[in-house]
Amino acid sequence: MAFKNQFKTDGFFPGLGKLADPDQYHEPIQLDGVRMETALRFIDKMIQIRCAEETIANGITSGIVKCPCHLAIGQEAIPTALAPHIKDGDKVFGAHRSHAHYLALGGDLFELFAEVLGKEAGCSRGMGGSMHLISKENQLFGTVPIVGATIPIATGAGLASRMNGKNEVAVSFLGDGSAEEGVLHESLNLAASMKLPVVYICENNLFSSHLHISLRQPADSIARYADAHRIPTICVDGNDVAELYHAAEEGIRICREGNGPVFIEAITYRWRGHVGPSEDIDVGVQRKDGLAVWKMRDPINRLWRAIETDQGSTSERLDAIWKRHREECNTLWQKAVQADYPADQELLDRVYTNLD
Amino acid sequence: MGKKLNYGEAICSGFKHLLANYPDVFCLGQGLWSPWYVGNSMTNLEQDFGKERVIDSPVSELGCTGAGLGAALSGYRPIVIHPRVDFFLLAVDQLVNQAAKWRHMFGGTVSAPLTVRAVINRGGEQGAQHSQALHSWFAHIPGLRVVMPATPMDARDLLISSVLCDDPVLYIDDRWLYDLTEEETDVVETPLQEIGPIRRKEGDDITIVACSHSVKLAIQAAQTLSKEGINCDVIDLRVINPLDIDLVCDSVKKTGRLLAVDGDWTNCGLAGEIIAGVSEDSAFRSLKCPPARVTLVDAPAPTSGPLEKIYYPTFEKVVTVAKKLVNDGL
């Protein structure tokens, strides 16, 4: 039978290849085009995020943290590299694993701890917990755990940006699991057909909860969905903060200039479980063998080795950064533990806007 | 005498008022450039206000509702239009999980001034998936204001109040009301928080409570009943979440009889909620007989014409039940 148009069922879009192979990319990253001052800011921020996550993990283990926490240890580079390109007026939306997004954008560490503990001093006044973070003064407009839910919301923020004509962009952080939700397709179609300034950043850590991507999708690249919607894609090593920095700069530039949406896929790996503090090596296939090798692609270690190559920095200097952040985390954690819970009446007072 | 507007024209006049006076208002939804989708309720708006502000969307209920929320969080007052409630169900996550909870879960620091307009479009043998109302479902959700206008001027003014409210609002209008006419009055911008139930007809014998199209049935029934010497107090709820039951309770204290009429299903529905609200109030002691409700038959909407006649509440059914309550006590 001859058809007028015959399509192949493979080969439309390349798979992740080496990026999904944990034996690759263990070497120090290349700092080309990233100023040393910026690299040092990155190492500082990524260590802050990891220390904060470890502090929260300890809080879960000790039982003081009750709310579900999805830790971003191992994935610190992606929001860290994005943050310098975000300007006032931009709008960033996260998902369930967003502590790193919040901190990278400049969210207050004490308010994160207080929020995770359900305290009035938290960034969401203790009403949201780990999964509902906001820091509008730092352009983080909200994070929510319903998978894929912020993808259309960020798309609408992009629509607002296009309407107000101020060259603002919207950013949607999403995971590989959300590509299995229909709303990603709806949103990409909307953004592409309306030429909305939205940067979709997929943090592809190859797992959705316990299930590896090979058991969920016929191919491992998420960018292929964007390509199907005629959206330009950039696929990068999500544990290489320098490559990410350039990708985010390029993606945001394209959007800001009014050329419509961009899709960045960053390949990474989470070190802890889907939720909670453990390494989660017993809940899913392929996880146990992979984790130790994936840790060789540690974004912090690869950046620090690059800095050392350039600066000849000593390990004492690195130790001092870790020590400073650990001490700060301990101090702020204790302060958050002591802080007050929301008053009882807030349960009702915050449901609707009150007329003054 | 002012000009008469029908319900559909009145909605359109509300859109015009909003689009003309509030640059942060825009509309997004399916069929907005076609008269085929939303009757006469949005005719030519895209010509008067531009296709940038009256946007005909792809077939993506969830994506568009989420986009409306995102724009609402970014300084706009979007109205996302779903020409049928049934199709709007594809978008429920964005209204129920997201918009309704946004303010609360972020500590009361942010508002989500999103209005979703969903249209009840039923009858005419359209069947199970082209006929639903479902307002009781949505009225269950804290943080989501649910508005059900019964008259043309309410259809206009409550649309305006909904869009100007800083909270997410589900505004539901009913195609069965589109031919209802009323004399046009000046627009009054009232904060939605201040809008509650009103008495549409005064009477001492029985309280009939309704919203939206059911108010029309209640008034028709009351007119018939008055000829038989039965005087009905008809209460139009207008906003069904948050629900203010005070006027209903006051009325029951006067009449001693309660009939709830609702174009939604019985179980866990609005009619039951009205009866529960009265039962928890001291008005309960004034009841001379058990309360009653007239609702949809608890089945999916049929397509067959004769079955449709059984399925929907009618003013004749309201008359029958009201007479039973007044004459027989049940």
Strand content of chain A: 5-15%
| Rg of Cα set of chain A | 20 Å
Helix/strand order of chain A, N-terminal first? HHEHHEHEHEEEHEHEHHHH
| Low-confidence residue ranges of chain B | none
**Fraction of residues in H or I helices of chain B:** 25-40%
Mean pLDDT metric of chain B: 97
Q: How big is the Rg of chain B?
A: 20 Å
Order of helices and strands of chain B: EHEHEHEHHEHEHEEEEHEEHEHEHH
The SS-based structural class of chain A is alpha/beta
Total helical elements of chain A = 12
- Major pleated sheet of chain B: 7 strands, mixed
Percentage of residues assigned to helices of chain A? 40-55%
Overall 3D geometry of chain A? Answer: globular
Binned strand content of chain B: 15-25%
Report on this structure.
The complex is a heterodimer of chains A (356) and B (330). With 356 residues, chain A is of the alpha/beta class. Chain A has helices at residues 36-62, 77-82, 99-104, 109-116, 150-164, 182-194, 223-228, 241-256, 287-294, 299-311, 315-338, 346-349; strands spanning 91-94, 140-143, 170-175, 198-204, 207-208, 211-212, 233-237, 262-267. Chain A has one domain: 3-Layer(aba) Sandwich (Rossmann fold). Chain A is 41% helix and 10% strand. The radius of gyration of chain A is 20 Å and the shape is globular. The mean pLDDT of chain A is 94. With 330 residues, chain B is of the alpha/beta class. Chain B folds into two domains: 4-194, Rossmann fold; 198-325, Rossmann fold, CATH 3.40.50. Helix content of chain B is 38%, strand content 18%. The relative contact order of chain B is 0.12. The mean pLDDT of chain B is 97. Chains A and B meet through helix 5 and helix 6 of A and helix 3 and helix 5 of B.
